[in-house]
């Protein structure tokens, strides 16, 4: 399994965190195949439903297939029930799908979060379909570095703006310390108005304020 995973294009560092009024995602855009940078613009943050976002690390083909499947399942739920699926419900469905493939697994680590009647929430799904609800989470090869920044700066009452700054800073540090993380850093937020990607110029403006380590 380890050799197979190393040979695949994979996501590298994604983060998610719950703020007082929403959920923030951030990720780099580098995909690697061994020591090769296979892509400098890999998409790792996706809208699944208007109120739910997903960040991904892992094999690109598996990620693309799962995103399409989850979007279809969420829309079928909406058609059948005349209402949106809850964030926890979609996270549970995701975990069940991944767990069902455990003998021929999706090579993915997923963070799924959004806002519904219960408020903002974030869930992590591992390679085997394990599901956990988190306040801060990270996936990919740069996650140990990113988590150090997240846990040091996190507070449950963070505003979306402060949460966005923290998420971007954590990925920025991972870029500096993890060779498989790099290129463009992207971000998205989910609040009462729904899912939206953060404008590139806004991301760049926030990143300019993040100090770069001289070491």
Which SSEs are present, and which pair or pack?
Blueprint: H1 2-7, E1 14-19, E2 22-27, E3 31-33, E4 36-39, E5 45-49, E6 52-58, H2 60-81, H3 87-100, E7 108-116, E8 119-125, E9 131-134, E10 136-139, H4 143-153, H5 160-177, E11 186-191, E12 194-197, H6 200-208
Antiparallel strand pairs: 1-2, 1-10, 2-11, 3-4, 5-6, 6-7, 7-8, 8-9, 11-12
Molecular structure report:
There is one protein chain. The chain is an alpha+beta fold and 215 residues long. It has one domain (2-208): Aminohydrolase, N-terminal nucleophile (Ntn) domain (Glutamine Phosphoribosylpyrophosphate, subunit 1, domain 1), CATH 3.60.20. It contains six helices and twelve strands. The protein has helices at residues 2-7, 60-81, 87-100, 143-153, 160-177, 200-208; strands spanning 14-19, 22-27, 31-33, 36-39, 45-49, 52-58, 108-116, 119-125, 131-134, 136-139, 186-191, 194-197. The protein has a five-stranded antiparallel sheet, with helices on one face. Mean pLDDT is 92; it is low at 4-10.
